[in-house]
Amino acid sequence: MSDDRDPTTSSQETETRKDVSDDHLPGERRSGELAVLDDPFADPGLPPHEHRRQDIDERAAKRSERTVALLFTVSMLATIGFIVAYVAIPIDRIVYIWPIGHISGLNFALGTTLGTALFCIGAGAIHWARTLMSDEERSEERHAVAATPEVKAHVLEEFRKGAEESGIGRRKLVRNTMLGAVALVPLSGVVLLRDLGPLPEDKLRKTAWREGSVIVNENTGEPLRPEDIVVGSLTQAMPDDLDHHDHDFHAQIAKAAVMLVRLEPEDIKDPRSAEWGHEGILCFSKICTHIGCPATLYEQQTHHALCPCHQSTFDLSDGARVLFGPAGHPLPQLRITVNDDGYLAALGDFEEPPGPSFWERG
């Protein structure tokens, strides 16, 4: 079969294909070659900085300054309102607030005033930052975690510039009202400390024991005679003028509860402790001086009283001194005698406060 194509034409086409193959178009790649972008994506950078109205109009800046100062002033007034409400509104006052209904007037007043005080501080700070402080954006290359001296100097210089641009030194109205609001709002927490209870004054140093108080069995309420206390036994007791039905019984018994033990006179090591007892009968506070648990686990052979909470151990034959454990003081001893009716009685109150240590204790 004959080929009708013109040899001259065929040669020209071959030359053309060769030229196209050798001089490929930009962006194309030959077989087996990786594609390489001639123009990588350019960094668009930050958009041009747009000045705020406050940056170019001092009257607008003054309005923003007054707005920030107003918010801080409202915060101060709200804090004062919190303190006034806490003092003036009775705790049992019930008010009707629509649409909530009947609620505690004190809680509503405290929540409203404290919330307003905190909100105005936050709103004032945000408005100050958005309208008066510098808002120009800058980008910096990442650097190693450990800063060089030059970087540290740069950061300090930037901090100085930021403080200067914030206007805290120039805008005294904003600065002073902010300091006043921030200084006053912690008073709300200080006032709430009052809810921890009344000050103890000297209540921790005094108990229900008085001179002549008859010692009664804590379980039966019967007065105790010396013959009721046998060697090797431990009896829990309290003053006779405490009544289980009194409203403050638990507060009083927590300080006045005692335990009686009887030792052979020759087993008592502390002469003062022996003198404060009666015929070998010793009376100690049973309230552990660590955290106030009853230290009434008694070992009659060793004369040791053990607290079950943290294993503080007291030697009742030696003035109830601490032998082991976290307790910091001996158990206070109550000086006792026998009254005209033959009952064991106290000669006064404890010389040392019973129970755990406290701040004012010497």
TrEMBL record:
Q: Identify its membrane topology class.
A: Multi-pass membrane protein
Q: Which domain of life is it from?
A: Bacteria
Rieske domain location: 255-345
| Localisation | Cell membrane
Cellular component GO terms held in the UniProt record: plasma membrane
- Bias regions of kind Basic and acidic residues — which residues? 14-32
Q: Which GO terms describe its molecular function?
A: 2 iron, 2 sulfur cluster binding; metal ion binding; monooxygenase activity; oxidoreductase activity, acting on paired donors, with incorporation or reduction of molecular oxygen
Annotated TM spans? 68-89, 109-129
Is Cell membrane set as a keyword in this record? yes
Q: Which InterPro entries match?
A: QcrA_N, Rieske_2Fe-2S, Rieske_2Fe-2S_sf, Rieske_Fe-S_prot
SUPFAM superfamilies this protein is in?
ISP domain
Q: Which UniProt keywords apply?
A: 2Fe-2S, Cell membrane, Disulfide bond, Electron transport, Iron, Iron-sulfur, Membrane, Metal-binding, Oxidoreductase, Respiratory chain, Transmembrane, Transmembrane helix, Transport
The region called Disordered is annotated at 1-53
Q: Which family does it belong to?
A: Belongs to the Rieske iron-sulfur protein family.
Q: What does this protein do?
A: Iron-sulfur subunit of the cytochrome bc1 complex, an essential component of the respiratory electron transport chain required for ATP synthesis. The bc1 complex catalyzes the oxidation of menaquinol and the reduction of cytochrome c in the respiratory chain. The bc1 complex operates through a Q-cycle mechanism that couples electron transfer to generation of the proton gradient that drives ATP synthesis.
Quaternary arrangement and interactors, per the entry? The cytochrome bc1 complex is composed of a cytochrome b (QcrB), the Rieske iron-sulfur protein (QcrA) and a diheme cytochrome c (QcrC) subunit.
Protein name per Swiss-Prot or TrEMBL = Cytochrome bc1 complex Rieske iron-sulfur subunit
Annotated organism of origin: Streptomyces zhaozhouensis
Starting at the broadest rank, the lineage of the source organism is: Bacteria, Bacillati, Actinomycetota, Actinomycetes, Kitasatosporales
